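ingest -> validate -> predict -> emit
validate: passed (alphabet ok, no gaps, 267 aa)
predict: started
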Amino acid sequence: MIFRYKFFRIPVIMLALAFFALVYFVSAGSADDLSGWAWSENIGWISFNSVNLNRGANYGVRISNSGNLSGYAWSENIGWISFNENSGCPKSPCVPRLNRDTGEVSGWARALSADNKGWDGWISFRGSGYGVTVSNCLWDGWAWGSDVVGWVHFKGAGYGVAAKDQGCIEEPLPPPPPPLVCPSGQVRPHRTCEDEVCKLVDSCGVSSCTSSSECKPKKVTQCSDGIDNDGDAKVDYRTSPLRAGRPSDPGCSSLEDDNERNLIIEI
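emit:
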């Protein structure tokens, strides 16, 4: 509580001077990668982009191709929070960085109004049991800023820090399904007749055709229907060695013959 008391004794005029002193050094908010608000129970709202306020200096936080953060955020209570610090932090590495492979944010930011008399201004993005994470373009999790800043939450009911462009990460694709093992005697893919077409089907099965010509319906004739159509006790065009290749019904000339009646030759 001592640190918080010291902090809130900082004259408002000093924060105002700090605000205008950095007007010339911060970049346009619309060109930066982060926007929105984080919340600290100790210092209140932290704005990550001047587009949130639509007034005053242009500022924001940007992210490089390698994932390093730079730029400024703003708190009405403690002033500028710098993401440009690369040395002097309590534990290296100091540079705040987004790991695009894991979505984890590490490193440090620093409140420039720190008096170094019990408050060094450092804000940690990752530590034992806490950290800031990124999923797609949404930032979440907690940062820690010692007794003065306290816990900083990047996402809550009705607020949060959002990103675009370099501030987003792509979610990894799900692993492919395991290969399908077909039962014995089946293959994948297999061919089957559908609507008189021999189609390749991406599933396990037994192939029943090799071309669409095999899928055409076959005409059933009197000489192939298994019926004694002419009543002579002889059926269809069926040959056997015992008949020396002659058909079972002498009225059939082939399986395609549609008349079992014997040919009558009048003399």
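The chain is about 10% helix and 25% strand.
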